[in-house]
Amino acid sequence: MPERIVITGGPGSGKTSLINALGDSGYSFLPEVSREVTETAQRAGIDQLFLKDPIQFSQALLEARIEQFHLGQDWKSNYLFYDRGIPDVMAYLDYLGSPYSPHFKELSQSHRYDRILLLPPWPEIYIQDQQRYESFDQSQSIHDHLVKVYKKLGYQSVEIPRGSVDQRVEFVKDLLL
């Protein structure tokens, strides 16, 4: 079974660019699923499911991320990167101040990753779009909630410094040595 490595951070911190570059370098990864959940809801006429019904949105994300976690069991590589992890769901709900069932925490505790890599907020690369509606200040707050949730679950995350995508890839490769 591969080492499971989550790359997380607030919206617009460069996670997907880093994940894609790691994939281009030959590493295995599983993509972020929230855009897919958002786009499915939009096709059904719900513009922002996360804002309209955060629990329904979060439950859909939780299920998709658990499915991704289980896919990793049979992966044939040394490392498997995840664009966000199961605990991210709790962090976003905490950010909203939305109460949630204890099963969110139970599932986060029973599905453990090997490493958590955290990308800090970065105003110079932050861009809003149709799925990323948060302001930069909100992205910073989400980042803070991610740090708290992962720490509360017993993880020691490693912050990936700001830099070009290539520099970030090299930083991650050095961590794997």
From TrEMBL:
Q: NadR/Ttd14 AAA domain: from which residue to which, for each copy?
A: 4-168
Q: Which domain of life is it from?
A: Bacteria
What taxonomic lineage is listed for the species of origin?
Answer: Bacteria, Pseudomonadati, Bacteroidota, Flavobacteriia, Flavobacteriales
- Name the SUPFAM superfamilies on file: P-loop containing nucleoside triphosphate hydrolases
Tell me what this protein is called.
ATPase
User: InterPro entries from the entry?
Assistant: NadR/Ttd14_AAA_dom (IPR038727), P-loop_NTPase (IPR027417)
Transmembrane stretches, start-end: none
